[in-house]
Amino acid sequence: MSRSRRSRAPSAALSVWSTQPCETRPGTKRPSWRSLPATSTLSPRLALGLEGAHSTLDFRGAFEGGSICWAAPVNTQGSQPGAAHVLRQARVPAWWVGLTKSSSQIWECLMDQSAADDYERANIVQEAAERDTFTVERYRQFARQLPDGDHAHVLDVGCSTGRGGVELARARPGAVLWGLDVVQRRLDELPAVYTKRICGLSTAIPIDDEIIDAILAGEFLEHLRPQDVDPTIFEFHRILKVGGRVILTTPNPNAIKLRILKGSVYGPGHLTQHHASVLRTRLRMHGFKNVKVRGSGKASRYIGEHIPFLPLYGSYIIRADKC
Predict the structure, then answer these.
(1) What domains are defined for the chain?
(2) Going by fewer Cβ within 10 Å, which terminus of the chain is more open, N or C?
């Protein structure tokens, strides 16, 4: 029996709201925020970071278990950045909590759809992936890095039109290949080597837990917004079987060519850059082991993958196994 997707950790940013100080109006039972006792005194950084985000707002609150909590400066009149803050709390009606949580869920769905639309538009206008002359060779590298065994379920993340998948199927004919992309039109045009086509975001992959043997993501991670990198790695870990493998390639920010030309990984469609040492640590923090880094990109045509001086390569391949 397959397991359903684990629910994601609640997004504090969606449950946080701000308010201005107000007094109880005559004839009402509305609490006076100013009159509430402080439960603790906090530094400004900690107080404003309780809900998981930095803010310059004076008042921030989050509903939790029928209460509203917020960090407020001790001096509410023109508080300075270094001023002490206090954590305050008040009870709120159950119906208001339910309404707020429902609104947060609706807002989260809207934000997910907005992100999907943004990524879809960015992918449609960027056709570099279709002109990349190294795509076929990259998937040959992937094939060499895949775990042994036939009938492995392999998810190709950001599969585009499937040029790489065709080469992978030639090299590993026993693999069961699935494709994930945010552009439905491209999924509709995938070649027959893809037995399943999945439209969705890498931050919320519509696949059950622990059913994938290997994940491939060629030149994909750099196209994610900074806030989507860790949720994507979390999703990779979730859907992989124990011992399953993730294999990624991404541009190398330390490439000699970039330094000579004073270039940057950032550019059209490239929203993040990933140093190999940082990505290695990131994968380990998300529950991966046996992390290995090798050279990739066009330089590997001439010097191979194993020279231990990564700046020679414009891209690198990194693999890791789920603990």
Answers:
(1) 12-96 (no CATH), 128-322 (3.40.50.150)
(2) N
